[in-house]
Amino acid sequence: MRGSPLRILVVGAGLAGLAVARALRLAGLRPDVTEKLPPSERPDFGLYLPGNAERALRRLDLDGPVRRLGQVIHRQRFLDATGAPLCEVDLDGFWGGVGECRALPHRDLYRVLLTGAGGAVRHGAEVSAVEPLPGRVGVTFTDGTAAEYDLVVGADGPRSSVRALAALGGPPRPAGQVVYRSVVRDGPAVADWTALLGQRAGFLVVPIGAGRLHCYADEAGGTLPADPKARLREVFSGYGGPVPEVLDALDEVHVELSDEVELGRWSRGRVLLVGDAAHATAPALSQGAAMALEDAVVLAESLAAAGSVEAALLAYESRRRPRTRWVRDRTRDRNRTRDVPPALRDPLLRGRGGRIFQEHYRLLVGPL
Ligand SMILES: Cc1cc2nc3c(=O)[nH]c(=O)nc-3n(C[C@H](O)[C@H](O)[C@H](O)COP(=O)(O)OP(=O)(O)OC[C@H]3O[C@@H](n4cnc5c(N)ncnc54)[C@H](O)[C@@H]3O)c2cc1C
Q1: Does ligand 1 lie within 6 Å of residue 15's CB atom?
Q2: What mean pLDDT, rounded, does the chain reach?
């Protein structure tokens, strides 16, 4: 796009917001980034990144620093609840030519993106009003200050305020699962991405480097337990494989309800939603970060190629819709398999599980 540099506001400094800021900076723009939380350490979560996340990081010129973090994951192993093998996916074979699969601490990726975004985030700044105007957007902050922008990017997560303020959608829909996360030190030795599939529940363990394990578990339901650690021990006490040792080594456990966001449109005037604000899903495919990184790459490319902001936002949405829809639909498919009784499901997975799980990523191996 020709003319004077665009004034852009990115609301939210999570992975999506920072990735957008990075992509825009690479395109020669200097967006403002606001984050409602004060600057503080991010929570101690692990993150698994399938190969398309590394491809997007390469396009953001951040694959170098990320390659030093966490651990490359070569294989996904699916076990039944007792720990007996069901099937495997050879990740190097499947994602070869796209990117390595990696598991790492969330806060390590956050730090790389923060540096890549130029480091300047206005913390404690929340948006209280967003007014799409002809050719620009009026923004008011909760501290009473106001400004006008050529483009506002809402990257403020599944419970996005920008989404509500721009009348793009209401609250997220519960995806029907209680999800638990923890980082375990001094746990068992686990080399691969290893998931134990129970009935209406699952337990995942992934090494994230330096002897640490990222643990993720979910169960069907819609109510948060009062004591998440006790609940994890109750639900998964009968599981085999590495689970008993992981349960013994658990320290802090974070719990939340998984959200899904499905919108008819992602922009109104010059206000655009990206990342979980636009298309959050339950985390079954571990595609949230990859989708956020891809959003950033495609947004910067769309702005560079189009003749106007409005045309760029239309081009952006038409490129991103098929991939995010695919992730949502395959996530729902994968979650539905949880409801099938293991006596029916497990023989099928022993025979064809590797191909079925691989198929869930087929579109994502293709070009952005
Ligand atoms: C249990 C669980 C496990 C997951 N595991 C994985 C995984 O293994 N791999 C993977 O790729 N993804 C995973 N995800 C998803 C992934 O973390 C997200 O999709 C990804 O981080 C993108 O998030 P985001 O930046 O869009 O939103 P968020 O991370 O929610 O960031 C939004 C930011 O905006 C800020 N904000 C909110 N409102 C305002 C406001 N009004 N004004 C200013 N700032 C605001 C918030 O404080 C926050 O910093 C998981 C998610 C869950 C819940």
Answers
A1: yes
A2: 96
| 139 close to ligand 1 (CB < 6 Angstrom) | no
Count of beta carbons in the 10 Å neighbourhood of residue 368: 16
Q: 60 in a domain, yes or no? A: yes
What is the C-alpha to C-alpha distance for residues 328 and 249, in angstroms, rounded to an integer?
33
Q: Whose CA is nearest to atom 11 of ligand 1?
A: 289
pLDDT for 155 beyond 70 = yes
Ligand 1 center–CA 348 separation, angstroms: 34
Which residue's entry shows tokens 């992981």?
246
Return the DSSP state at 169: -
**Which atom of ligand 1 sits closest to the CA of residue 17?**
25
Contact by Cβ (8 Å): 250, 232: yes
Identify the domain containing residue 283 by its residue range: 8-172+259-365
Q: Pick the residue with more confidence: 254 or 338?
A: 254
pLDDT at 1 over 80: no
CA distance 36 to 302: 28
Report the candidate in 270, 284, 300 with the shortest Cα–Cα distance to residue 337: 284
Q: Is the pLDDT of residue 159 over 70?
A: yes
Q: Is 290 within 8 Å of 255 (Cβ atoms)?
A: no
SS3 177: strand
CATH of the domain at 302: 3.50.50.60
User: Which pLDDT does position 339 carry in this prediction?
Assistant: 85
For the chain, the straight-line distance linking the first and the last C-alpha, in angstroms and rounded, comes to 21
Number of domains making up the chain: 1
Output the six-digit token pair for 211: 């002897």
